[in-house]
Automatic annotation (TrEMBL):
Protein name: Ig-like domain-containing protein
Keywords: Cell membrane, Disulfide bond, Glycoprotein, Immunoglobulin domain, Membrane, Receptor, Signal, Transmembrane, Transmembrane helix
Claim: Transferase is one of the keywords in the record: no
A Pfam match: C2-set_2
Main location: membrane
Molecular function terms from GO: signaling receptor binding
Domain spans labelled Ig-like: 10-111, 126-207
A GO biological process held by the record: T cell receptor signaling pathway
Ranges in coiled-coil conformation: none
Location of the protein in the cell: Cell membrane
Topology within the bilayer: Single-pass type I membrane protein
A single Gene Ontology CC term: external side of plasma membrane
Length: 207
C-alpha cells in the first residue's frame, strides 16, 4: 500500500482529483462529477447540484466537495469519519456538458491507520524470574512488538504476544509477555511499531 493515501480512522482525508483545463474557468452548471468505489456511488454532483439520492448509504453525510474550486477543475473529495471499511480504490469521473461521454480522471487508493496508545509496561517477580507485561490498543493495522533488555533483543521463546481485534471498530489491541532471568539491575523496554504510520511508541522500566 505504499502508493495509497493513508487516512486516520475517525478523522477526515482528502481524495485528490484535478482536471487540467488551463486557466479557463468552467461554469458549475456545466460540471458533472461522480466519485465511485467499484459500483457504489460515493458522491455525485450534476450540473450545479448534489445528487444525494444515488449515494451509497455508507457514505451519507460523510462527503464534501469544495464548490468554490470546482470551476478551476479541482474535484477533490473530502471523506470524513474514516473507517476500516473505507479501504478501497476510488474513481473520479468527470462529465462536461456538451462534451460527450464521461471521462475518468483519477483513481485513488485509500488505506487507513490508527495511532496506538502509549504502551504500558508492568513487571511481576516470581523467584529468580521476572515477567514483564506490555499492553497497547486502539491501533490499526496489526502491530509488531519489540522487546529490549539492556538494549539487546531477548530470545524469541521468552516472548509471547496476543493480538485481539474489536468486532465493531476493527481496531487492534496487543498484550505481550516477556519472561527474563534477573540477576542484576536491567532496563526493559517495549516498543509498539505501526509500520503503516512509520510510528514507534516505547515505554521502559528499570528492574
Amino acid at each position: 500500500d505504499k502508493d495509497c493515501i493513508v487516512g486516520i480512522i475517525g478523522q477526515s482525508t482528502l481524495l485528490p482529483c484535478v482536471y487540467k483545463n488551463g486557466n479557463q474557468d468552467m461554469l458549475l452548471s456545466d460540471i458533472g462529477i461522480e466519485w465511485r468505489a467499484d459500483s457504489v456511488v460515493v458522491y455525485s454532483f450534476v450540473y450545479g447540484k448534489e445528487i444525494r439520492e444515488v449515494q451509497g448509504k455508507d457514505y451519507a453525510n460523510r462527503t464534501h466537495l469544495f464548490t468554490e474550486v470546482l470551476k478551476k477543475g479541482n474535484f477533490s473529495l473530502r471523506l470524513e469519519d474514516i473507517k476500516v471499511k473505507d479501504i478501497q480504490y476510488y474513481k473520479c469521473i468527470f462529465n462536461r456538458k456538451g462534451f460527450g461521454s464521461s471521462e475518468p480522471l483519477d483513481q485513488v487508493c485509500l488505506t487507513v491507520a490508527a495511532h496506538y496508545t502509549d504502551p504500558v509496561v508492568q513487571r511481576d517477580a516470581e523467584g529468580g524470574e521476572a515477567q514483564f507485561n506490555c499492553s497497547s490498543g486502539q491501533g490499526f493495522p496489526e502491530p509488531t512488538v519489540h522487546w529490549l533488555i539492556n538494549g539487546e533483543r531477548p530470545p524469541v521463546d521468552t516472548v509471547r504476544s496476543t493480538v485481539t481485534q474489536e468486532p465493531d471498530t476493527k481496531l487492534f489491541s496487543v498484550r505481550s509477555l516477556l519472561t527474563a532471568n534477573v540477576t542484576q539491575e536491567i532496563i526493559v523496554s517495549c516498543t509498539i511499531e505501526n509500520h503503516r504510520l512509520k510510528e514507534n511508541k516505547t515505554s521502559a522500566v528499570i528492574y
